[in-house]
Amino acid sequence: VQSISRHDYRPYPYRITHADLQFDLQADATRVHTRLSVESADASGQALVLNGEDLTLEQVALDGRTLSPDEYTLTENTLTLAPGTLPAFTLEITSLCRPADNTQLMGLYVSGNSLFTQCEAEGFRRITWFPDRPDVMSRYRVTLRADKQRYPLLLSNGNLLESRDLPDGRHEAVWEDPHPKPCYLFALVAGDFACREQTIQTRSGRDALLQVYSDHGSEHQTEWALDSLVRSVRWDETRFGLELDLDRFMIVAARDFNMGAMENKGLNVFNSAYVLADPESATDASYHAIEAVIGHEYFHNWTGNRVTCRDWFQLSLKEGLTVFRDQEFSADMMTHGLPEAEAQSARAVKRIDDVTALRIAQFPEDAGPMAHPIRPESYQSISNFYTATIYEKGAEIIRMQHTLLGEEGFRAGMDEYFRRHDGQAVTCDDFLSAMESVYVRQNPGSTLEQFRRWYSQAGTPRVKVTLAHDAAAQTLRVTLEQRNPPVGIETRQNPPVEKLPLHIPFALGLLDGEGKELSLTHKGVKQATALLELREKSQTWTFENIAEQPVPSLLRGFSAPVIVEYERTPQELALLARHDTDAFARWEAAQSLATRVLLDSISRPESGSPDEQLLIDTWEALLQDGSLTAAYRSRILSLPAERELLEKTSPLDPLAVVEARRRLIGKLGDALAPFWMTAYEDNRIDGPYAPDAASSGKRSMRNLALLYLMAAGGQGGQELTLEHYDAARNMTDRMAALGALVQYGTPEARSERLQHFYTQWRHNPLVIDRWFAVQAASAATSLADVRQLMTHPDFSLRNPNRARSLIFQFCTNNLRNVHSREGHSFWAEQVLALDALNPEISSRLARVFENWQRFTPVLRDSLQQAWRHIQSQPALSSNLSEIVNKALS
Ligand code: B3K
Ligand code: ZN
C-alpha cells in the first residue's frame, strides 16, 4: 500500500455542481442511483476518476446514454471515464452496497434495526462512486425509499422537500441541502426513533427546528443533549457571531459508532454515549462530555462545514480549531453565573483536565513512531490520523494564537477567516494568514511567519529555564532556551533533521520566599504575569526591583504545549502548591511534588522518598485551605494518573508505577484519614441532581475522599464505601463507590456489588459498558478474568463501545495485568480479531503499544514478539499495516 504526500495535491479537474442520489434502502443490499452534474474545471480533458469500495457497479450513463464496459475502466477502487473535451455533462451511475455486511461501520451500515452512514474521511466511496475528496463540493438532493414499517423515519441533510407513500408498504422522502458540501459531510439515517425537539429563534430572528432522535424508550435521556444543543447555538452567536444557517438541525444517536460523533451538515450522527443521559445512569463526566461533543459537532457547522479542508493533510484546520472552540464553550458553561473567584477556579479545572488529557495521550504520541506535525506530510491511511496531535495539540496551537492576539484580536481574525473563505475548501496556512492579518496590525513589523513552524514540526519542545538574581542590582535575569529534539522517523534520518526554533508564548510569574506574588517589571511595564515570547534558541529577559531570589511560577495557564525543564527543590514545589496565584501552575506544583515522591519510591523502594512527609503536610494544608473550590481541591489532591507517571519512568516500568501509586494513595489515605472524613462529610449534597460545576465539584471531592479512605485499607473504608454505594442516588456516586471497591475492596464485597450493579442495569447498554470498563481497568482483574468476561452473553467485539469498555480498557489502563507475555499476546490476538471486522478500531488498539521500545527489557522483548506476530499475518488492513510498519521500523 502506498503513502500519500501533502505535496502531491492537485486540484480536481472537474466540478460536481449537483449530486442527485436515490436510495432503495434495504439492509442486505441497497441500490444507489447517482446523478452527477459535471463541469470541466480546467478544459484539459483529463480523465475523470471516481472512487469506490466494496460496491457492485450496475450501470454507467453519460448524458443519458448507457456506456458499454469498454467505454470506462473499472478497477477494484476506481472508475475512470474519458469524457474528452465536453465542458459539461451528466453522469449517472447505478451501484449496490451491502449495509448488513458492513462491519467496518464506514459508509452505509446497520446498527440495531436502523441504517446509518459514516463518511468521514473516506466512507462515501463505500456508498457510491464519487470523487471522494473534501475539495469537491456539491449541492445534494437525496431521495430515500424504504419499507415504511421497518424504517418509518427517513432522514438526510438539509430540508425535507416532500414525503409520500409508495406501493407495497414502502415510502419515500426527498431531502435537499441548500449548502454545497464535500461528500464526507453527507448523511442518511433510516429507522424508527423517538424524537425530542424544540424550535428556537436564531439571532437574526429565523426559526430553527432542533431535534434529537434516539431509540424508543430512551426519550427521557435526551433532555440534556437538546439543552446542550440550544446552549451551543447561543454560545456561537454570542462569542463568535456565528448563526445557525439551517432551518433544521438534527442529531441521531447510534449504538454502534466508531468515534464520538460526526458533524454531517444538518444531520449529526452521534455515538449514543454522547447523547443519552439521566442522573440515574450517567455520571458528571458523561454530562460534561455530552455537552462538549454536542458543542464540538455543532461548532463544526462553521469551522469544518462552511469552511472545510482542501485535503486531509489540513484536518487540524477544522479539528484543532473546533476542539479549541469546544474547550472554550465548556469553560464558559462551567463558569456561567459564578462569582469571579469561583469562575476562575472552574476555568482552571477545565484547563487542568484538558492539559492532563494532552499529556497522557498526545505527549507520548509525539515522542513515538507515529509522531507527526499537526499538519502531517504523508499518510497511508487517513483514519490513522484522527489523533491527539491533530485534535488536542492542534487546539493548543490555536490557543497560543488566541493568547498572542488576545480575545478581541482572535475574534477579528476569525471574522476575517470567514470573510475570506466562507464556502471554500482551504488550508491551515489560509487560517494562519487570516490571523496574521490582525497580528501585523497589532504588532507592526512583526509576523506569524515563525509561528507557522508549529504546523510543520513534530515533537514536544523543551524549554529550559535559568534564573540569575543579582542582589546588588536587584535584577532578575530569566533565560529561556528551547530544544526541539528529533522524534519518530526523524531520529533515523541522515543527515539529522535540523529543527528550527518555535515562537513560544511563555507565561511567567514570581513569588517571594513567603509565597507572596511579586510584580514583574520589564522595560518599565509592571505586571503579575509576564508573557515572554520566546523566538530564539535562547533568550534572556531582565526584570527590575527584585530584592531577593524569587520562586518562579512557570508556564502559567500552560501557555504553550511544551515541557519545562527547571530544577526545583521540593520546598519550592510545596510553596507554590500552597501559594501560587495562578491556579494552573499551583496545581502543577502539587502534582510535581507528588510525582517526585512517587518516582523516588520507584527508584529506591526500600527507603521510600525523603519528601513523603512534606507531601503529606502539603496535602493537609490544601485540605484545610478554605479558599479552594471543591472541584479544584479534588484536582490538586489527586495523584497523577498511572499512565502519566509511566511516561516519566525510563525505561517504562508499569508494574513499579502501579505499586508505588497504590502505596502512596494508601499512605495519604491513612495519614490524613480525619481530614478525608471531614471532606467526605462537608461535600454531601442534598436535593436533586444537577451536573453544574459546583455540584459536580463537590461530588468529585467527596468521591476522592472516599477513594483515599478506601485505599487506606482499614475496615472503616470498605464499610463507608459500601454505604456510599447503597445510598447513591446518581451514577457518579454509584460508580465512584463501585470503582473504589473493585480496586481496593475484598473479593466478596467486590463481586457482590458487581453482581448487584449488573442486575440493576442489564438493560442499559451504556451502563453495562461501565460495568465492563470498571472491571477491565482494575489492578484486581486478571487476564483470566478478562477472558471470562469476554464469554459473557453481553460481550461483543462488533460493538465498538463494548470492545472499548473491555478490551481497550484492559490493554490501556490495567497496567498491572496486561504486562506479561500472555497479556501481550492477548493484545495481539484481539488486534487481529478486530482487524477482520473493523480496521479503524483494530489500528487504535494496536497503537496502545506503539511505544513498546521504551519498556523495560523483558516487556520490550515480549511486546516485540507480539508485534511481529501481528506483522506476520496475511491480509492486514491498510490501517493496521501502517501502524505495524511504523511501530517496527
Ligand atoms: N469529524 C469527526 C471524525 C470522523 C472520523 C472518522 N474516521 C468527528 C469530529 O471530530 O467531530
Ligand atoms: Zn471534530
TrEMBL record:
Coiled-coil spans in chain: none
Residue span(s) of domain Peptidase M1 alanyl aminopeptidase C-terminal: 571-888
Gene Ontology MF terms in the entry: alanyl aminopeptidase activity; metallopeptidase activity; zinc ion binding
Classification via Pfam families: DUF3458 (PF11940), DUF3458_C (PF17432), Peptidase_M1 (PF01433), Peptidase_M1_N (PF17900)
Annotated keywords: Aminopeptidase, Hydrolase, Metal-binding, Metalloprotease, Protease, Zinc
SUPFAM superfamilies associated with the record: Leukotriene A4 hydrolase N-terminal domain, Metalloproteases ('zincins'), catalytic domain
InterPro entries attached to this UniProt entry: Aminopeptidase_N-like_N, Aminopeptidase_N-like_N_sf, PepN_Ig-like_sf, Peptidase_M1, Peptidase_M1_dom, Peptidase_M1_pepN, Peptidase_M1_pepN_C, Peptidase_M1_pepN_C_sf
Cofactor: Zn(2+)
Domain Peptidase M1 alanyl aminopeptidase Ig-like fold: 459-567
CDD domains per UniProt: M1_APN
GO biological-process terms attached to the record: proteolysis
Domain Aminopeptidase N-like N-terminal: 20-185
Recorded catalytic activity of this chain's protein: Release of an N-terminal amino acid, Xaa-|-Yaa- from a peptide, amide or arylamide. Xaa is preferably Ala, but may be most amino acids including Pro (slow action). When a terminal hydrophobic residue is followed by a prolyl residue, the two may be released as an intact Xaa-Pro dipeptide
Residues of the Peptidase M1 membrane alanine aminopeptidase domain: 224-439
EC number: 3.4.11.2
NCBIfam families named in the record: pepN_proteo
PANTHER family the UniProt entry points to: PUROMYCIN-SENSITIVE AMINOPEPTIDASE
Record-stated family: Belongs to the peptidase M1 family.
Identification of the protein by name: Aminopeptidase N
Organism: Paracandidimonas soli
